[in-house]
Amino acid sequence: MKQEIEADYIKAEKAYMQGEYAEAAEIIDLLAANFPDCPFVHLFRGYIYGYGLEEYEIAREEYELVLTLVPHDQELVNNALQGTVYSERLLKIRQNKT
Description:
The chain has 98 residues and is an all-alpha fold. It contains five helices and no strands. The protein has helices at residues 3-17, 21-34, 39-52, 56-69, 74-97. Helix 1 (3-17) runs antiparallel to helix 2 (21-34), helix 2 (21-34) packs antiparallel against helix 3 and helix 3 runs antiparallel to helix 4 (56-69). The protein is globular, with a radius of gyration of 13 Å.
């Protein structure tokens, strides 16, 4: 991970781990805007929006972006695919309730 990303990424992680999802999202959104080609930022953005904020459509978009950025990195691909499945499942549940 690029050094200029690392400090803010760690801040976002800390906020996320403390349940401060809106704060984590604010930090990671800036990182995603400034470093649009960093798959780690987009994967974590997916986690924050999916698991934290329950914004499953945004999460799914982030996971899909990771798949296009690093199609040959098996670990990132696996994490993105798991996040995609999770997000899609919960989107379907939410849609069935409405």
